Amino acid sequence: MNESTNPDTAAQTAADDSRRYCWVCYASDEDDVTAPWVKPCLCRGTTKWVHQSCLQRWVDEKQKGNSTVKVNCPQCGFQYIIHFPNMGQLMLFLDRMDAFIYRVCPFVAAGVVVGSCYWVAVTYGAITVMQVLGYQEGMALMESADPLVLLVGLPTIPVFLILGKMVRWEDKVLRLLRASVRKLPFLRYVLPGFRSNGDGGPQGATSTTAVISDPINATRVLCGGLSLPTLATLAGRAFFPTCSTTLNQTLLGGLAFLTIKGLFKVYYKQQYHVIQSKRIIKDNPLHDAASSSNTSATSTSSTGTSSSTDRSGHNEGTRDQ
Ligand SMILES: [Zn+2]
Ligand SMILES: [Zn+2]
């Protein structure tokens, strides 16, 4: 028996070795006798062979439409040698053109966007110059200036306006006022909004630092910076109608606008801070009714009384403050 079975199993393994299995579709030679086979990598054993068509499909899946992507064997990592038939000169040229356009388009698109932004900035700068100096003077200045200076100088106007808007001088003024009120208590009578500031308690100290600077909002900075010349012109016309030149009127108007707006902002931030530091979380008026019905329904009177004493403790605490 042994003598007969041993050669059989040996022959079986030999047949298994010579028999080819596709690692993609698991089919063997017998399943499809005509399908062409390929051993494309360094793998041995069961993953050595694969159908040409199965591997093509697998490569297509990996490349996702981009035929220049290199594909490696998932087992041994060997990079498949993919051979294309010789294409004609026209096909070669078209292929190169296609790859070139594919690579260049993102840069062209970025350039168009940057260029558009630049010209918008130049236009904005020119309008601002005319707004601040007056139409006649602004036109005369720009006509007499070097074109290069204009092309560099005009777009920096909106940039500086936006950067200037990001300087938060109101926060510094507020911080300075708070610090000086703490050092010089008599200032509290001059600045009533700061009276309650810093009067003991760790709560007040933490919220002082927390409230003072809120995060920069990009659209708000953009709108605020770019609308400043217009607002300055309007303020100049309103407050300084007898100014000699448009430039002086606009500068004074801008200064007045920024000062008034800044003072309002300091006031708003300080009042907001005071309101925040004085806030109290109120008792739930329905709680008593709910807890009494609870105690009557289920006999958990101990929890009910403990919570009520707790609450009264809180009440006394807030009354003390
Ligand atoms: Zn296959
Ligand atoms: Zn392999």
TrEMBL record:
An example of a GO molecular function for this protein is: zinc ion binding
Q: Which domain of life is it from?
A: Eukaryota
Q: How does it sit in the membrane?
A: Multi-pass membrane protein
UniProt key word Transmembrane: yes
Q: Which PROSITE patterns match?
A: ZF_RING_CH
Keyword terms of this UniProt record: Membrane, Metal-binding, Mitochondrion, Mitochondrion outer membrane, Transferase, Transmembrane, Transmembrane helix, Ubl conjugation pathway, Zinc, Zinc-finger
**The enzyme's E.C. designation:** 2.3.2.27
Asked whether the UniProt record includes Metal-binding among its keywords, one would answer yes
Reactions performed catalytically: S-ubiquitinyl-[E2 ubiquitin-conjugating enzyme]-L-cysteine + [acceptor protein]-L-lysine = [E2 ubiquitin-conjugating enzyme]-L-cysteine + N(6)-ubiquitinyl-[acceptor protein]-L-lysine
Q: Where is this region: Disordered?
A: 286-321
Pathway noted in the entry: Protein modification; protein ubiquitination
Stretches of Low complexity bias are at 289-309
Q: Where are the transmembrane segments?
A: 100-127, 147-167
Where is the sequence biased in composition, kind Basic and acidic residues? 311-321
**Stretches assigned to the RING-CH-type domain:** 14-83
Q: Which CDD domains match?
A: RING_CH-C4HC3_MARCH5
What Pfam families does the record tag this protein with? RINGv
Gene Ontology CC annotation, any one: mitochondrial outer membrane
Chief site of localization: mitochondrion
Subcellular localization: Mitochondrion membrane; Mitochondrion outer membrane
PANTHER family named in the record: E3 UBIQUITIN-PROTEIN LIGASE MARCH5 (PTHR46283)
User: Under which name does UniProt file this protein?
Assistant: E3 ubiquitin-protein ligase MARCHF5
Report the source organism: Hyalella azteca
